[in-house]
Amino acid sequence: MSASEKMKAKAEQVIGKAVRKAAHALGSETTAAKGAALEARGKGRGAKETGKDTFKP
Description:
This protein has helices at about 5-25, 30-55. By secondary structure, the protein is mainly alpha-helical.
């Protein structure tokens, strides 16, 4: 897994979590859902890249 892909995955997770927490504090459920989706996408990207490392010869 390349370092840039790892950074993208982690950045999506961190930004998504921050957006979700801020939106909950402000009471914006739509934005909170978007933040949660971004965080989930980051987790999925990280899992994909970890899987690539596992099966790499």
